[in-house]
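We read letters as residues; the fold follows as tokens. A sample entry reads:
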Amino acid sequence: MIMIIRHQPNFDIETVRTFFAVAQSKNFTDAAELLHKTPAAVSYRIRALENQFGSQLFIRKPHALELTEAGRVLLKQFEKIDRLLDAISPQLAQLASGVPASFRIGVSNLLLQKPLAKLIFDLKRAFPKTEFSFQTTPHSTLWTRLVNEDIDFAVGLPQANEKPIRIQTIDWGYCHWQLSHKTEKGNNTIEPESELTLLAITSEKNNPLHQTWLQSFGQTLFVNDTDSVLELVKLGVGAGFLPQRLVQKDHLLYAIETDVGPGLTHFLLGSNVQAKNPIIDYLIEELKTRRSEFALTDE
């Protein structure tokens, strides 16, 4: 059995910088001045680097040094390392200021999703070095995801009888639901409720609080979120519960009077981060300002 031993180069950041300085200056003396070192120290590091790789990196000519083929290959690789080093400093400075490197946001599927696009754009512009993740989540599972730390911030949390101590919440707004459907132009006749297909959101399917109004319809079509309900209602596929504020503004939607339905939903904003976090402060302020874009009211 033949054992292959892989060579593991051993060099530090100072060696990388020395190599760059020599490649740029093309002689040890000028490189030493750039690095505030002696020419002998610079020459020593280059020889040690050549020994590490087992290849000559510079051709010594009378008036200048010239990179060999191996030197050019190493230069390209060291440039990658240099770019990584340049990125590390801003990231560390960002962490020191309290801005995390990554941030996960869960959004209730009962909310309109379209307004999130502008929010994501503005959020990324405000915190360009943070990696963001937005996840549309069934309304009933938002608390579980937040408590289990699968997400850092929840948009549209339902009310809870007992809030975990380490979870911070703030009132965001209310949604008054209105059963709506599309009425053909010139025809204001509304079908009886029992003859309508109800467009319901998947997270409502197994919610005991909603079983009564789901069962009052002959057929039910489950979709993923409120945006899907809206588009299907406009196409005339069926009737669905939509934010009352939205129904009042859209000329394609017609309200149906009914005694069943979700009624009123109180949405919260929540986080499991106790320390001061600029992203959370920004999100809370922006979402409170943009409440009407999600067709929510403050009472």
Notes: Residues 69-96 form the longest helix (28 residues). The chain is about 40% helix and 20% strand. The longest strand covers residues 168-181.
